[in-house]
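Customer ticket, subject: "Can you confirm the structure for Putative permease?"

Message body: Hello, I'm evaluating your service for our small team and ran a test protein. I'd like someone to confirm that this is what the system normally returns, since I don't have a reference to compare against.
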Amino acid sequence: MNSPVFASLIPVVLFIAIGFLSGNRGWIRAGSVKDLSNLVFMVLTPALLFRTMSSVHLGDVDFAPIAAYFAAAGLVFGGTMLLLGFTSLAAARALANMFSNTVMIGVPLVGLVFGEAGLVTLFTLISLHALILLTAATVVFELAAARERAGTPGHEGRSMLRTVLMAVRNGIVHPIPLPIIAGLLYAQTGLPISLVIDKPLELLGQALGPLALLLVGVTLAFTTVGSHFRAALRIALVKCLVHPVAMAAVGWAMGLKGMPLAVMVVAASLPVGANVFLFSQRYEVAQDEVTASVAVSTALALITMPVVIVLVTRFLV
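Agent reply: Thanks for trying us out. I re-ran your input and got the following:
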């Protein structure tokens, strides 16, 4: 066994377990989860993203693994739609099948296993992840919803262009892509960050991993799976197993190798991201199923991610 890999994974499992226990015992109340989530997304995450990307030059960034990732995600999404049909429900399940939790779990996990070099690759993906995948998903959802509304009295059609432009805007003006873009722009100036600013950013970034993982566990404690377990398990199996296999296959076909490919395969193995629930809520489809799939895929990923990481570190890195 690769002991450094398991040494990196132990804190991930431990923090999620502590968070689950804290929520289950009532030490953290359900009403506090949103506030903790805002702290992670609005303060800690931007600090880490900006500081890491502020020393990266665009000429050193390899976009080939990112292209392979989106190709693999497209295969999973398109394959799901082909199997289930062109409906809003199929779109919700397809999005859940390929949209990863790249921030809450991906950032601390990749940071522990691959270090800062791995984080640069992951942050490059994150800068485009929501923008490209959620914009494409918006188009599919709108087309499917329009098809379902066709001929229904009392429903006015939505402007496709306006909806897509709004999705693009929301994908850019967001606390995740913005600090990455700002950090890259600052890096191109060649100026170092003042120590007075750099040290607080470093401390905030160091707090992200533990708090984000604790928050995942707390969220799991307040999530009820219930009668949607089977549907959630199907999504979880595709997300945690089929998606990384598709990523590895596409990467191999494109001639990719080394740590960048390993990071992309690990990113594909991550559980379902919370943005999928926001889409299902907006389009009022499969809300309970998607919520359950986030919980089930996170629990399943605690078993599958170590296997994926051991395989990629042994054969790709």
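A couple of notes from the result: The domain at 3-315 is CATH 1.20.1530.20 (Na+/H+ antiporter like fold). The two ends are 15 Å apart (CA to CA). Feel free to reply with more questions.
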